[in-house]
Amino acid sequence: MVRYVTVLSTEIPDSWKYAGDGWGSSLHRICSRTGSFPPALAHYFVKRYSRRGEVVLDPFSGKGTLPLEACLNERIGIGNDLAPEAYVITRAKVNPVTLEEVKEWISRTKERWRPESYDVDEVSDDVRTFFSKYTLRQILAIRDLLMDDDSDLANFIKAAMCGILHGPTRIHLSVPCSHAFSMSPKYMRRFIKKNGLRKPKREVLKCLLSKVERVLRNGLPRVRGVATMKDARRLPLEDGSVRLIVTSPPYFNMQTYAWDNWLRLWFLGYDYLEVKNKLFQSESRQKFGSFMQECLKEMYRVLKDDSACFVVVGDVKLNGYYVNMAEMIAPIAESVGFTVARLISDSIPRSNKHLMYIKEEDGVSRERILELHKGNPVQNDEPVAWARATVEVPA
Ligand SMILES: C[S@@+](CC[C@H](N)C(=O)[O-])C[C@H]1O[C@@H](n2cnc3c(N)ncnc32)[C@H](O)[C@@H]1O
């Protein structure tokens, strides 16, 4: 039974599907993280459903794609996420610092750090699996310098360090592995042995500078935003203060955020198990339904009248059957006051999923975007970045 109007994302004129591969500011690439939506999708909705100076929110901001895109387009981007590494990355994007500030920090660090004084044997075997002793001593020294510093500069460096901590290239600090998620140490130990891999000796401050130079290549957003680390069921925002929400909640049956980031969480001084217990995670439809109801009620509360809310969800496989999360959430959204305007169906290329360890048949193959309205939102005609110019054909 299809109750809702459904359109394909490719049928929307100038939708994000028409942006080129890798579209978006270099700042988006400070650190990868699983489960994110593309910058072009965020750009499209920001341009169409909000105006300059208005507040745009993602209550599950992950790596902060939506709030950054909002700030780049002169809106006030707010990103909230309960995961510490997501908060650090989101904050780095909405409150970035300049290359000069990072260079100064690196010069000061060279004068005061003492990596040789660190005993790497005090670090867990799991962490040591990824790094040479030479590199790990430097990581420990940087970690200590940043640990109790809550400035935007220290936060930006933490995010950039998370971005180079593990991965396959010469600026990554680890043995070659995935950059999108922290791999299992058990798997890595077998992989290293089987392939005879060597843990590289890196000059960490050089790698850090190289990363920051790349990330800031396209400049900084003109508007600063806000990052918070709260439960999405209790947002620290006033009633009716937000013009647009674009978000993607934790996927039913697919929540691995804490484990996917265990090494970054270690670097930031957290235990992934403690973080896992805080984040929403359940395979029960009933618990997921109640969680979504509380979250949607909160989103409805903070939205202004005549505003839109876009919720990106997938079709998830549970016990051999596909669960259409959009159809599951739509009636809940209606129960808290939203009107379901339409469902936008969006296929995701496997290369974008970063879920290499999930079997093809168990992953998310199709995403659907629920377009929810509070009142009657009006679309803007502000052009999106990749829009084709209309050619006037003489009569
Ligand atoms: C699908 S991801 C969001 C991805 C994001 N849109 C992006 O582009 O990176 C869902 C997020 O929900 C966060 N999360 C889980 N439980 C939460 C809660 N109770 N409150 C706030 N955030 C939560 C997870 O840390 C995860 O980042």
UniProtKB/TrEMBL annotation:
GO terms for biological process: DNA restriction-modification system; methylation. Gene3D superfamilies: Vaccinia Virus protein VP39. Its EC number is 2.1.1.113. GO terms for molecular function: DNA binding; N-methyltransferase activity; site-specific DNA-methyltransferase (cytosine-N4-specific) activity. Keywords: DNA-binding, Methyltransferase, Restriction system, S-adenosyl-L-methionine, Transferase. It comes from the Archaea. Residues 34-87, 242-345 form the DNA methylase N-4/N-6 domain. It catalyses: a 2'-deoxycytidine in DNA + S-adenosyl-L-methionine = an N(4)-methyl-2'-deoxycytidine in DNA + S-adenosyl-L-homocysteine + H(+). Belongs to the N(4)/N(6)-methyltransferase family. N(4) subfamily. This is site-specific DNA-methyltransferase (cytosine-N(4)-specific).
